[in-house]
Amino acid sequence: MANTFTSQQTYIDEFNPKDYLQTYYVPGGGLLVGEWTDFVLQNLHDTFTKGEVRGETLLDFGAGPTIYHLLSACEVFDKIITSDFLEQNRAEFQKWLKKDPDAFDWTHIIKFVCDLEGNRETCEEKAEKLRSKVTEVLKCDALKKNPYDPVVVPPADCLLSCLCLEAPCKDIKSYCNVLKNFQDLIKPGGHLLILSAMNCTFYYVGQKYFSSMTTRKEELEMAFKEAGYQIVKAVYTPRADKSRMDITDYDTNYFIHARKPE
Ligand SMILES: C[S@@+](CC[C@H](N)C(=O)[O-])C[C@H]1O[C@@H](n2cnc3c(N)ncnc32)[C@H](O)[C@@H]1O
Questions:
Q1: Best label site of 26, 112, 125, 158, fewest CB within 10 Å?
Q2: Domain boundaries, the chain
Q3: Residue 3: band (very low, low, confident or very high) from pLDDT cuts 50, 70, 90
Q4: 104 near 21, Cβ under 8 Å?
Q5: Ligand 1 pocket, mutate which of 84, 90, 148 (most atoms under 8 A from CB)
Q6: Average pLDDT of 32-53?
Q7: What is the DSSP code (8-state) at residue 54?
Q8: Looking at the predicted structure, is the pLDDT value of residue 1 above 60?
């Protein structure tokens, strides 16, 4: 099983959004609730409150069945176009948008962001604001020249992606190529925000194994430069709780804020 690269077909057949949410985001036990969500939500809150990263459109790439990373963004963008490769993930996202009784309950995460923002609004108001900003849930494929093919999305002010590119990319060369293709999706002077996990070789979704690409800081930052971006900020935080390395073995959270030149 080790070193087996997960194919697109395996994603289509075996990635179960309910199992993913249960493993990683359920309150009180989800592996990513705490260290990972704190890292993402704090960094995005800081980035969006500084005032430079804002505008008309945010493109969210590879959301899976999750919404957590959009809670601060909805304060500073007029509209959010989200996307994922898998139909089952897009359907799960839509359930939350439509307040389907079967949708995942993100209240614990929404509360965390409301706290960060000084509780200007209630969790319900925050959720409604995000729902009102999401205008499209598109199919994307990181490995295509136009990842939204056949849809052509006008260049955005910002492209955000969390825990995604290590799934479809086999190596740093492929990752760099995806970043190059993202150039066409971002306005000149626009922003690219990538938050993810380093040195992850696998993650489980329920009983199913999925591979992940590994890289080093130097290679990673070089990929952004080679793809034509200026790095504004790079943050690396080691994983403190290593008690569940059998579910996923990443050892560092990273955040790269890069900018497309004017
Ligand atoms: C570990 S999950 C991350 C989900 C979510 N972004 C999060 O932060 O929890 C990896 C995601 O990569 C997506 N993915 C897999 N292959 C892809 C591809 N070729 N293009 C874009 N996304 C892909 C999967 O559908 C899945 O949603």
A1: 125
A2: 8-259
A3: low
A4: yes
A5: 84
A6: 98
A7: -
A8: no
Which residues lie closer than 8 Å to 255 by C-beta, 6 or more apart? 39, 40, 43, 193, 194, 195, 233, 234, 235
Looking at residue 158, its pLDDT comes to 98
Mean pLDDT of 99-124: 98
Q: Look at ligand 1, atom 1, and give the residue with the nearest C-alpha.
A: 163
Among 245, 200, 203, 205, which residue's Cα sits nearest to residue 220?
200
22 with 104: CB under 8 angstroms?
A: no
Residue 249 pLDDT greater than 70, yes or no: yes
For residue 150, count CB atoms less than 10 angstroms from its CB and return exposed for 0-12, middle for 13-18, buried for 19 or more: exposed
Q: Which residues form the pocket of ligand 1, taking CB atoms under 6 Å from any ligand atom? A: 8, 11, 15, 62-64, 66, 84-86, 89, 140-143, 162-164, 167-168
The pLDDT value recorded for residue 37 is 98
| Span 8-259 CATH architecture | 3-Layer(aba) Sandwich (3.40)
